[in-house]
From TrEMBL:
Coiled-coil ranges per UniProt: none
GO molecular function, one term: metalloendopeptidase activity
Catalytic residues, chain numbering: 254
Swiss-Prot/TrEMBL GO biological process terms: proteolysis
All residue ranges annotated as the Peptidase C-terminal archaeal/bacterial domain in the record: 401-469
Name of the protein in question: Collagenase
Any single Gene Ontology cellular-component annotation: extracellular region
Organism: Shewanella piezotolerans (strain WP3 / JCM 13877)
Organism superkingdom: Bacteria
Database matches in Pfam families: Peptidase_M9, PPC
Amino acid sequence: MPDPVVPDPVIPETPAAGLISLNSAIKHITLTEPRAYFVDVTEAAPTLIVGLMAGEAGKNIGNPALYVRATNEASSGESGEFDCVSNYTSGEYEYCVIDNVEPGRYHILVDASASDAAVDATLYTSTTLFNSSKRCDEVDVQVRAQDLTAAQTDEVCRSLRDTKARFDTTLSAAISPAFGDIVEGDKNDITNVNIFSSRRNHKLWVEHLFNNDNGSGIYFESEATDWLHRSDVFTFNALEWNGGRYKIRSLDHEYTHALDARYNKEGEYDESKGFSWWSEGLAEYIGIHYNNPYQNMTTASETTKYSLQQVFNGAANAYSWGQLVVTFLLEQKPAIVTQILTQMRAGEWNELKSLLAQVATDSQADFEAWYQGQLRSDYVASVTSITVGEFTELTGRSGRLYVVDVAAGTDSITFSTSSGSADIDLYVNQGAAFHPSDANAATAQSVTKDSNEESVTITNPVVGKYYIAAGDSFAGSDIIDAYLSVCVGSNCSVALPDPMAVTYEIEPYMPYWPAKGTIGSCNLAQSYSSGAGNATGLTITNTTDNNVDVYWVSRDSGKKSGSAYASLAKDAVYTETFWKLGDRIMLTDPAGECLGVAILNDTNNEFSLVVEN
């Protein structure tokens, strides 16, 4: 009897032109000339996604273009007829999204040639990835969401509206009305904001839409003045990072990138030009505006100080030091910002570098004096009052400064933080505003690693003001559903709102993966991420005459890891309950040679290894 094997795919003949099934994939498309397909949509749907990506083997797909058109056949090129086009550079994946899809036939053109061939590509279609697609009323944004309610989508639109208003206030109102005008020739009238249900879904789909490994939210723009233009934000509900609590990751930050591209920068949004300090600094300044004073104080207190020249040259963190420098320029040097934006809008990149070199020389002393003086005054002015016996919600990133008045006759007073995500630390100081980075500034503190349950009790407090700093020392953490409270006594408490409901991610499953419950090829032995939930009903049955070993595939390396979990004789069954959704299991022969890989999923985890005839 032959050995059991699940062979790596042999590239067969490219699928013929014509009808393809909706919500499925066809593989091994290798072309040196255009080929047309079509898909029939029988029910209205929020979106139709058509993608062209690499298959299991992960080979470079070449440089084909992708066109989609409703009802009639699509044609290629700038003068072609199409509803969507995708034509990135060689090796990049292509994708089209049609919003608010009506029933009917949708034509797909894979435009390949001898010089721009398609190589072993996978073509897939889906009307099920996004459950909603809405054009916001007050901003030029199309919001597509994998798992948002109508109310949550409306909330996203309001947040983007407010971000656009802050952008306008910061630049066109405070600096120059000219900066409220769109850069000449920019065609990106709409920014698509694509929101996935979890970080894991985001990572997988961004990889398969864009061949990009981003895991924190990202903005993409193709040449804004070209007929191929597009503007896309990709982000997600960061359930894995926030203990199942709802929070769209970096939404306003990424949308600020889109605004920066449309109103401030000529041509394609491209940080490789060397201005990431501006891009990320502005996105932090506007996108998480509420934490500017606190976070800038944190940055300015770092042991290693960076000069303007070092920030401009990319030697410093583009987010934190970029935010600090952008704050300085916007609030202290508006005339310089006018020069910077004038040259950005004109695409005068070399001239801009020369300007910044001069700014670094002329303004370094002012920069240092500002962050050593005025910055602290601005931070102190940002203080928020809280009343004894009440609470305030802690939300956002980084931290905030609070103040409470303690009355005469108070025997003791307790300051507490509790609940929620992130890792909040609590500092209290009597009589004077402070920042946690100040040396020996706090009268008392409570710092517990990986916990928000912090408490400080002060006995016989001095009458007057007590200042409280509460926040997460990691600026990238989202603080959600957490509270700061102050009460009289050592064992007192303040009634807090009920905790936010915890939700769970939609389990991702890519279109080119094997049918659930089916063992796939050894090409699936690659790095991946798994979910928090358990994979239920796992059984692996060896129906062959040869022993089969069971290994875990490492998430990081994509290789079989450690010792075998089991060795299965003929008809033996392996079952366990500790495996997670998304985990991958490699089956090998006794010599350790891979026979196939199983992906654990949310539907069918009953796998059988059979003899290949």
